[in-house]
Amino acid sequence: MIQLFHVSKFYDRCVALDDVSFRIDKGECVILTGPSGAGKTTLLKVIFGAETPDAGQILVQNRNVARLRGGAIPYLRRTMGIVLQNFQLLPKKTVYDNVVLPLIIQGVKRREARERVMDVLKAVGMEHKQKIRTDVLSAGEQQRICIARAIVNSPILLLADEPTGNLDAELTVEIVELFKRIQTEGTTILLATHNRQVVEQMNGRVLQLQEGRVVSDEERPS
Amino acid sequence: MMRWLYLLREAMTNLHVNRGNVLIGIVTTAFTLVCFGAFVLLYLNLKSVTGTLQGDVEVVVYLDPGASDQVASMVQKRLETEPATVTLTFVSQEQALREFSQQFPEESLLLEGMNANPLPASVIVNVSPRFLDTESLSAFAERVKQLPGVTHVAYSQDWVDTLTLVVSYFELGAVVIGMILAMATVTIIASTVRLSLHTRKEEIEILRLIGATGAFIAIPYVIEGTILGAVGGGLSLALLKGIFEFFRLELNASGWFAGVEHLLPIFPGRVSFLLVMTGMLLGCGSSVLSVFGLMKARQ
Fold first, then answer.
1. Whether A104 contacts chain B with CB within 8 A
2. How far is CA B94 from CA A101, B91, B100, B267, in A?
3. DSSP β-bridge partners for residue A4
4. N or C: which terminus of chain A has fewer CB atoms within 10 Å of its end residue's CB?
5. Residue of A119, A153, A90, A97 whose CA lies nearest to B2
6. What is the CA radius of gyration of chain B?
7. B208 touches chain A (CB under 8 A)
8. Per-residue confidence at A175, pLDDT binned at 50, 70, 90?
9. Residue A107: its chain B contacts at CB < 8 A?
10. H/E run at residue A7
11. Residue B220 contacts A, CB cutoff 8 Å
12. If we measure between CA atoms, which residue out of A127, A75, A69, A72 comes closest to residue A102?
């Protein structure tokens, strides 16, 4: 599914990623952890093509992301779901309009799009708020909408960068449960977090980054 | 279908959210197109008058008042052999006097006191368009002047030539002014679209994140620019139409163009089409320029 070979990334003279290599198989759930500035966000960004590595190769479903041209990046992202810490929702649009957007971009027909949106809204427990604007929702609700939008096109890979960063402990549990449910459906997940609570609650492998290097790769029994 | 509806709706939202700047863009586009359109209209009207007058250039060959019918007939035969001649009309002395009296009834009293008719007979030669340039016409006139019984040859080419020169200056002026105004319009519409892009920067980032291509992101802005240009073009059309209707009324009242008003197209339909299309093209082109970076960006 994902393979990184000796990936390095520098910002000016600062090392963001230093010779990172690992492999994630289909259906696997990997928690990427480490302190702030360890390179978690940069690692996710090179995987979804927002940053180009200075060295190394990244294979996502046998496509070399490091060598993809700008025009091919959107098509790569359509195979992924991306959830970020700061929600990234369109504030003046309704819940439904936000979640349906990836399907509009991909040219899915209206009826099919509606069915799929309603399914994922039900899965994240937000079907009753479909007509409400996202800027009036609570932080936990907004993150659930982000997750719904990320999974609406049935991605093969779900990337999440600090998805509970803006949430309190109670809401964090809710979101972790949601990720666990998505994982059981066979979606490959790569979740970056420095939150110990999330690391402990999630099943799967834990990759620890420090100063841009992978310092431990621990498989935990589920 | 859903995709196009979404893109159109986004363009309308852009126009609504950015309405202050959009309004400025529309007014500026309309103003520049009014200037450009006025120039084009002046040029077209002048060209039409010149073209019609050029087509009507006649050479009048005046005959000696004492010339016999035989001489007159010989001159006509000789003129018929000239390649520049299309048609010939013989005007006898009596006919010339009648026409003079009809055209200038007050001055005709002066002629009544004379014993003999002082007006000469003439042959009016309608010249082929191929020989309407100054050189051919003067060569033709020189040849005709040598014929026995011919006293004078007159033609109205000089002022038509001057008018043609003025029209060619107008043509050049229209191109130069058009280019300057087009650049101004492009700058203004491009700024409006760029402002629109700036206010929706976060939204664009989100769209990129979920797999929107540069074209998908850019299309609403291109539609926005095109609509802005088309509305500007439409407004300029309305303004110009008003100005030229007023001009037409003034023209008729002043009597300046009496006799040639039928030659003035004033406001041909193609100018309306040209203005709206130019507005749309300028709007579309400016927005494409503004969003060009989006199409290529990796992030």
1. yes
2. 90, 8, 10, 43
3. A22, A58
4. C
5. A97
6. 31
7. yes
8. confident
9. 2-3
10. strand A2-11
11. no
12. A75
Q: What is the ipTM of this complex?
A: 0.88
Question: How far is residue B160 from each of residues B133, B155, B183, B263, measured CA to CA in Å?
Answer: 10, 10, 34, 15
Asked if B298 and A105 come within 8 Å (Cβ–Cβ), the reply is no
Which chain A residues have a beta carbon less than 8 Å from that of B210?
A: 77-78, 82, 101-102, 105, 149
**Could you tell me if B263 and B51 are in contact, meaning their C-beta atoms sit under 8 angstroms apart?**
no
Q: Please tell me which residue of chain A has the smallest CA distance to B215.
A: A71
Q: Give CA separation, A78 vs A103, A154, A165, A166, B207, in Å.
A: 9, 10, 24, 26, 11
Tokens of A30: 């990997």
Residue that has been written with the tokens 């250039």 in this structure:
B57
Two tokens, residue A115: 């069915």
Contact residues, chain A, for B6 at CB < 8 Å: 104
Which helix (H) or strand (E) is A191 found in, with range? strand A188-193
Task: With both helix axes pointing from N to C terminus, report the angle between B19-55 and B269-296 in degrees, rounded to the nearest 10.
Answer: 140
What does the block give as tokens for A77?
Answer: 């992202």
Residue A58 has pLDDT above 90, yes or no: yes
Residue B141 has pLDDT above 90, yes or no: no
CA pair distance A89, B266, nearest whole angstrom = 55
Could you tell me if B296 lies within 8 Å of chain A, comparing CB atoms? yes
Question: In sequence order, what are the beta bridge partners of A22?
Answer: A4
Contacts of B17 in chain A (CB under 8 A): none
**Mind listing the pLDDT tens digit for each residue in A129-153?**
999 999 999 888 898 899 999 999 8
Cβ atoms within 10 Å, residue B142? 10
- Using the Cβ of A72 and the Cβ atoms of chain B, whether some distance falls under 8 Å is answered with no
B296 with A107: Cβ contact below 8 A: no
Long-range CB contacts (< 8 A, 24+ apart) of A195-201? A195/A162, A195/A164, A195/A165, A197/A164, A197/A169, A197/A172, A197/A173, A198/A31, A198/A164, A198/A172, A199/A31, A199/A33, A201/A173, A201/A176
| Yes or no, beta carbons of A102 and B296 under 8 Å apart | no
A101 vs B202, B210, B214: nearest CB: B210
**Helix or strand run (H / E) with residue A37:** none
> Which residue of chain B is at minimal alpha-carbon distance from A151?
B210
